Records
---
Amino acid sequence: PDRCPQICDEYAAKDSRIKVVHKKNGGLVSARLAGFKEARGEYIMHLDSDDYLLPGAVSTLYDTAKNGDYDVVKSRPLRENSKGKIWQESYRVNDGEITDNEAYTIAMLQNSISPYLHSSIYRKEVFDVFVFEKVLYGDVSIGEDWVTNMLISPKIRRAKILDESVYVYFWNEQSMMATTIISPLLNERLDKVLDC
């Protein structure tokens, strides 16, 4: 209703780097799978609906990945609520380097780094169609970012965590995710459980 498909086509007509995929709504993971199948670059990024990138986001992540030969570069996401308040997420590791897949897996399990696919850049080869299909056909709709990161973790040789924000995640305080599933205290609760 907001002419989104036409607007996308107009941008694609102006810039050959833009490829538009028209598909029936099948949810977030279905969209990621469709995008992955069309992606031709060495690196890929995920941008969720209602979120936005800050100026220089792509070049910051890409240059860091290329110059450091990283499989993944994660930035610290910002959250924005419906009143326009913005705050930066914090994890045990907000800046640093991970030098093997076991350490990446442990960091994910311990909630030491951002679990999201957004606000990051990934070497395309760490994914394959089956990663997305496994999440899609496993009907994982909550925590799919974390599950996907766990599925690719055996392929992560080097990762960089940037103490910098390039991505703003819209936080709907009235959503089921915010009020019942992932309250703002989730990280504290996970930390207590995992540190026992």
---
Amino acid sequence: MTQNAIAIRDDMSLGQLGDMLAKSGYFTDARDAAQCVVKVLAGKELGFGPVASMTGVYIVKGKVSLSANLMAAAVRRSGRYTFKVNVLTPTNCEIEFFEIIGGKRESLGVSGFTLADAQKAGTQNLDKFPRNMLYARAMSNGVKWFTPDVTGGPVYTPEEMGERVNEDGEIIDAQPVKPAPYVAPEPPKPAAP
């Protein structure tokens, strides 16, 4: 190792990591250590590291929500599934999902989401980023329908959960919930003789 080399330690406790992530100020939807730890743990269950979890995992109304990019990564990283974007225009997105069996891709089906679908669903940012929004919805539907085991069940984008998002599907104007103070349970009272 040279004198200028940087040593990266991986022996930080989860609490220390959460504290460091919160203090960084980079993540507007998680401002305290506990919120950061929850995001990191949720991402870890899906095989993602701390930074990917902080930027692509959201807790919305008590439910885990993922960015479309993390969903796509989970599908590809599974080794069992993959997908192909067949159509991506400002009015239509079609993503075909495949299961890999014996080294060959077998189609599971196509998840499509159109501009008309998006308008009916009240999808945000269609005027600015229609392809991004259609892709996110086609991806989340496809993961729910064809590959739910890569996420442990149904998963939604933050926008589907009612959050305002930007062109990358990241929550904007996030207001972290203030956690309730911890109150230790009272010890049991000794039984009367």
---
Amino acid sequence: SNRFYVCYAFAGSGKRWESLRKSKKYPNLARWFNSIVEEHGTALNEVTSVYAGKKGLGEPTATKSKEQSVNTDKVKKVNGDVSENNKGGSKPSAEIDLPDAEVGKVRLRFAPEPSGYLHIGHSKAALLNKYFAERYQGQVIVRFDDTNPAKESNEFVDNLIKDIDTLGIKYEQITYTSDYFPELMEMAEKLIREGKTYVDDTPREQMQKERMDGIESKCRNNIVEENLKLWKEMIAGTERGLQCCVRGKLDMQDPNKSLRDPVYYRCNPMPHHRIGSKYKVYPTYDFACPYVDAIEGITHALRSSEYHDRNAQYYRIQEDMGLRKVLIYEFSRLNMVYTLLSKRKLLWFVQNGKVDGWDDARFPTVQGIVRRGLKIEALIQFIVEQVC
């Protein structure tokens, strides 16, 4: 690649490169060079030797010193496949470590929302869970995060399972967040009684503005009895209950806005695709995920870095619930140029007849990619290369 040739041109420039590398003016240049060396070190040394010889530069500069060593807390240089069961047969140059992971004790979850088909962005998360489960001889479960009946359906559940199987992901079991609705409601009430949450009837737009400005809600200091009364209205789905939501009482002045009293429960009279009209209240993802992760024995929760600001919220909620801490492992979200990866936007194309369906060959879904003729092994290899 062009990066590679620029890299060996620098390395072959002798004292000039050493001067650039040690200069405090160009820290990003040295860091970039180190990353190239980590991936192409052997080939770079060979090419640099030839380059330096032809230019009469004498002995080539060493491409990697002890001080330059890449941080190995997360990445270790190894030879071989990602795993024995890697369907793609790719051989990336690095393995990724899962912090504080013990062989045989790792338990992970891939938790898609059943509001669309699996696309290439989700595939990265799914295959990363698969990778770590295999590397540490652990388990991965599939959990459907079905907390929003307005967007979800059995069609999406069925096709997500189909796509997960297509990717060759072996999972221990399938669970649903809705399996835990009774326990989640009990937890919400427990936190109300402990004064760690409150019921708020502030209109949504006003609430959003108050959170941005760090203004406490007028309901924040309601007595427990008033909160429990409104909570029962929410459970019943009354007109009064529909005006309310349950919010965590965290810190409205925290610079991290995710900690400014997030919403835990909302009313929604729509029937759920699995359990019908049994419930009128549903937990938010931010409330349900830390609870279910802990209850299901998850050791590491893999989340894309777009959730980084909400990590503190995740840990705080587990602490308030009195549950064990689940470690969060972040990975970069996969974005593509001129390609939509938003399920909401992809759904618009399907609903408006702009495409044949979720498996349209122009779609970035697993089924669309397969229909286009791309081998699933190639997709797996592409995703693994993004990770490693």
